[in-house]
Amino acid sequence: MQILITGAAGFIGQLLAKELLNDPSYTVTLTDINPPPIPDGVTYPQNARSVTTDLLHGGALSSVVTPSLDAVYAFHGIMSSGSEANFDLGMSVNVDATRNLLEALRHTCPGVRVIYSSSQAVYGQPLPAIVNDTITPTPQSSYGAEKLICETLINEYTRRGFITGFTLRFPTISVRPGLPTAAASSFLSGMIREPLAGKECVIPVEDREFRSWLCSPRTLLWNLVHTLSLPGDVLPSHIRQVNVPGICVSVQEMMDALERVAGREKLALLREEEDPALRPMLESWPTRFDNQQAVSLGFRRDESFERAVRDYLVDR
Questions:
Q1: Which residues form the NAD-dependent epimerase/dehydratase domain (predicted)?
Q2: pTM given for the model
Q3: pLDDT in tens, 174-212
Q4: Would you list the DSSP string of the chain?
Q5: Axis crossing angle, helix 97-108 with helix 142-159, rounded to the nearest 10
Q6: pLDDT tens, position by position, for the chain (316 residues)?
Q7: What domains appear along the chain, each with residue ranges and CATH number?
Q8: Which value, in Å, is the radius of gyration of the alpha carbons in the chain?
Q9: Catalytic position from the list 26, 143, 157, 312
Q10: How far apart are CA 172 and CA 186, in angstroms?
């Protein structure tokens, strides 16, 4: 199976590439605006190629979009805080680049499976206590609006038969390895990752009951690969979005998990400091979902946040 991963230099792209390149049945093209590395230690590095491509330049797509493609994972984009800080850049990278990609796929490999990474940021208040897949998204951020625009494109291109699209609305992924990102939710990994590395992390909300909807990298990875096997007609042709399962965790529960795994002394590296500019965006996101549809399609959810922390210690 021939797979294209856009935004492949990022964390999720590298995570997925590593998984696929340990299986001889996949040939993977990694592309990003910066040279995406082939992950170290994979079993079949010869099954990968790395191509530097700017998706905003439609002509450059011919180097990565070929008639033999079986599936595309679209992970490229500017994250939440970055999109809010620079409207023009967010619209360009998150929307225009996605439209360019879909047009290239439509004309080169019609019907190809496209797995698009969306976000719970498509939602905004007011919301019911528990959100399900039928709730109408009303984003309260540029990032959420850009993701919703692209979801509509995936629906329309699938309805017309141009692609076979699946939109996965990710929970916040925690615990992410690596450095802090421009995501508003970055602290939800940092408050575990940084203390484990002996570094301080600022939590931008002074409310330990503040809750977030989270998913571990391991569980996300399993669900991403699972989407390759879903029948194309398992969803209506014009409604292709699925809320990926997560778990609801408070700041206090995350701190408790850190203490149980690494010791109470690590809590001294957490500093709570309210960020009034960030708080409205964080509070606009839902914190509880009814994932009945995703579970019926075979998607998995995490066992607990403590398990996610312990998995991070093994996987980092």
A1: 3-214
A2: 0.93
A3: 999 888 877 788 999 999 999 999 999 999 999 999 999
A4: -EEEEETTTSHHHHHHHHHHTTSTT-EEEEEESS-PPPPTT-S-GGGEEEEE--TTSGGGGGGT--TT--EEEE-----HHHHHH-HHHHIIIIIIHHHHHHHHHHHHSTT-EEEEEEEGGG--SS--SSB-TTSPP--SSHHHHHHHHHHHHHHHHHHTTS-EEEEEEE-EE-S--SS--S-TTTHHHHHHHHHHTT--EEES-S-TT-EEEEE-HHHHHHHHHHHTTS-TTSS-TT--EEE---EEEEHHHHHHHHHHHH-GGGGGGEEE---TTTHHHHHHS---B--HHHHHTT----S-HHHHHHHHHHH-
A5: 10
A6: 999 999 999 999 999 999 999 999 999 999 999 999 999 999 999 999 999 999 998 788 999 999 999 999 999 999 888 898 899 999 999 999 999 999 999 999 999 999 999 999 999 999 999 999 999 999 999 999 999 999 999 999 999 999 999 999 999 999 998 888 777 889 999 999 999 999 999 999 999 999 999 999 999 999 999 999 999 999 999 999 999 999 999 999 999 999 999 999 999 999 999 999 888 888 888 999 999 999 999 999 999 999 999 999 998 8
A7: 2-171+216-243 (3.40.50.720), 187-213+247-289+302-315 (3.90.25.10)
A8: 19
A9: 143
A10: 9
Enumerate the β-bridge partners of residue 292.
none
Cis preceding-peptide flag for 128 (omega within 30 of 0): no
* 143 is a catalytic site residue: yes
Residue 208: Cβ within 10 Å count = 14
Position 58, amino acid: G
